[in-house]
Write a structure and sequence with these properties.
Helix content is about 55%, strand content about 10%. It is built from eight helices and two strands, in the order ββαααααααα. It has helices at about 30-35, 50-60, 65-70, 80-90, 95-100, 100-110, 125-145, 150-170, and strands spanning about 15-20, 20-30. A two-stranded antiparallel ribbon has the order 1-2. A hairpin with a 2-residue loop joins strand 1 and strand 2. Helix 7 runs antiparallel to helix 8 (about 150-170). The longest helix is centred in the last third of the chain and has 25 residues, at about 125-145. The chain starts with 12 loop residues before the first strand and ends with a helix.
Length: about 170
């Protein structure tokens, strides 16, 4: 495919812009893309980027608030402070997870949007496991419906759970 701007060179850069919902795609050669300023991307981090340096950056986002919240909390087993963990990104022992649990909740919420990791399922397991997750979520809704005495909704949820469980049983067989 030729560059849409110079019509001479091979287009190897695809530039997509969305403005007010209107999507525009340009296929350009590297020279034209650079002239238009599409290849001058400045990274917010240095060129020596590593995952080891990522954690301190993430933890430093609310460092002042974190220092006020944690004080001098240390792990009683390895004596690692939460500030030391925030700088290095590694716990000293397995007990640190328990000791710093309350501080980690806020960080996890900020980094991944939730305190609980659900992960992805391999495609070969997605059917049955996906149904199991749906059933678990419906069971929680069922308990809430019963707690507020919404028995009509509870009956619908019960039937839906039963149907999903039957589908999962057929998938296992």
């Amino acid at each position: 495919m030729l560059c849409e701007k110079c019509k001479k060179n091979t287009a190897t850069v695809c530039v997509t812009t969305i403005i007010n919902g209107d999507k525009t795609v340009k296929n350009l050669c590297p020279n034209c893309a650079e002239q238009d300023g599409h290849l001058n991307i400045t990274m917010p981090f240095d060129h020596n980027f590593s995952l080891q340096n990522l954690w301190p950056t993430i933890f430093s986002l609310g460092q002042e608030d974190l220092a006020r919240e944690t004080g001098n909390v240390c792990c009683p087993q390895c004596h690692l402070s939460f500030q030391e963990f925030a700088k290095g990104g590694r716990f000293g022992c397995s007990r640190c997870y328990e000791e710093f649990q309350s501080q980690l909740k806020g960080i996890l919420r900020r980094v991944q949007g939730s305190e609980q990791h659900t992960g992805k399922l391999p495609k070969r397991l997605a059917g049955v496991k996906g149904i199991e997750r749906q059933v678990d979520a419906l069971k929680e809704q069922l308990q809430q419906a019963v707690a507020v005495e919404n028995f009509e909704l509870a009956a619908k949820l019960r039937d839906e759970i039963k149907s999903l469980q039957e589908t999962a049983a057929k998938g296992d067989a």
